[in-house]
User: Fold this.
Amino acid sequence: MPSRVYAASNAQILGLGSFKVFRVVESRLDRNPVPVSPEPVRARRLLPPTAAFAGSGAVFAALYVAAGAPTPLLVVFEQQWHFPAWVLTVAFASYALGLLAALLVAGSLSDHIGRRPVLVGSLLVELGAMVMFVFAPDIGWLIAARTVQGIATGAATSAFSASVVEHAPEHHKKLGTIITSIAPAGGLGLGALLTGIAVQFSGHASVIVFTALAVIMAVGTGVAAFSAETVSTRPGAVRSLIPRVSVPKAARREFAASIPVHMAAWMLAGLFMGLVPTIIRDLLGLHSGLPNGATAFVEPAAAAMAGLFLGRLAARRTVFVGGTGVLLGTAVNMTGVATGTLPLLWVGGIIGGVGVGASFSGAIRTITPLVQPHQRAGLFASVYLIAYLSFGVPAIIAGLLIAPVGLPATVLGYGVAILVAAALGLLAQYRIHTHRSPMEHTPPPRPSVSVEQWARK
Assistant:
């Protein structure tokens, strides 16, 4: 099954992202699609195709539920272990940086050695991370567990994105694309919400949550192990581990104009997943888990829905809608922080989440047609380098500033940075749209079979 499916479905994730990611060697695959590997005769039985499809989709979503689960627990651990506030943001960002590293290194490995080995290995590593969470005695172990979790998630995301679509019934390929589009962002939000509920009603939330997730990952490993392989092996596995980060000349103007858009969107996502627990506790004075988890839930959930429902909107218009949403959502969030009003944080999270999903997916759809298939892997790697650095690094900087300048000033400064980046992104998009030459108004040639056409087959 052509790996370009995995690139496109993750571009839609961007609700977040699935997402996601794009270490594909598309040029060779477009010319010589990888045939489905016939399963050799073996003693063990394989899951029926429908069960393999449903199981793969569920485990993929569970992977991101696990990624969102620690968010409401970070402030609980801070109270138990008495570490500085900046360490909390390091614990958050270590996941993002581990995920980025794994995406860049192992993103296309399953194209060479098969989906099943990558998924089984990644889920076993994820299972190990869940066990580390259960028995973590201090913040050092927690950061290590979060890093291992990021690596496992990054390594599994590309293989899952392809596997879910490849296991989808032939007449429902689009359903596979939809699942891979909403699972990452939706899973992040759902994980935060469920953990918040556990914190609200149990004194042993971390043990309950991560034990349950460990069981799910063990079952998921079995699902991956007993699902049919969907691609044949091919040489080049070692070479595929070398990250490729590049921006082809044809896409450089659009890419440069999209940088502040990506920064604003992912900084807002980092604000909700990294700093919201501290904001809820220290600025709003709420120490219960439910408001914490619910607030962390709204932004990624809205991002997932935006990426799903705004896909038919023109790419440039989607970017404008998204950038405007990030601006308005951030302004509402800052008002909520300044006035101590929780509902404003929720409203701002919904508006901003729609902005995150729309702006990122629109920016991806704007630059993708400008490059040849064999150039996309390096281009998408560049996009995700900016995205995940914007997701994790500003949160660490904010954590370091909390002690010297205070939490209110830190959050305000963070919000101003998002507003500036979003405004610059909108301005850059407007300028590049209104100053294109006549030649640039001519749409680039489309590939003979687009991903969308393939998904509808």
Observations:
- The chain has one domain: 4-36+46-445.
- Residues 4-36+46-445 form a domain with the Growth Hormone; Chain: A; fold (CATH 1.20.1250.20).
- Confidence is low (pLDDT under 50) at residues 1-39, 437-457.
